[in-house]
Amino acid sequence: MRKKSLHSKWKIIFIIVLIIIIVFLLYKIIFDNTIKRWKFLRQQTNNLQKELNYLKEENTKLKKSANTESNEEYLEKESRLSLGMQKEGETVVVLEQTTTTTTTKPEQNILNTNINKIIDFFKNWFH
Fold first, then answer.
1. What interhelical angle do 2-68 and 106-126 show, nearest 10?
2. Which residues contact 122 (CB under 8 A, 6 or more apart)?
3. pTM
4. How crowded is residue 40: how many other Cβ atoms within 10 Å of its Cβ?
């Protein structure tokens, strides 16, 4: 009788331990991915907010620039730069550019990084 009682106690302990392991695994599978997605989305939100702030600043600068220049000044400037026009008595000098270098602003890098992160997020989401 004592053997049956001892055997049934071990069986109950085994079942409890097995249930605890299953619950832990389910937690890791379900909530670990959710937490990773939440962190990723929070970072995306922060990056997009920085980008929005930058674009608002640029927009404000452009509006100020457009308001300060009169139409006549703007037309003269564009005529000189784009069309190579000149005033009487002036000489136009054209400099040939031999090399070009492109630099990206940090905000452009943030945008490219954000786009890549969004693409990776959807790849992970649907796979």
1. 140
2. none
3. 0.39
4. 15
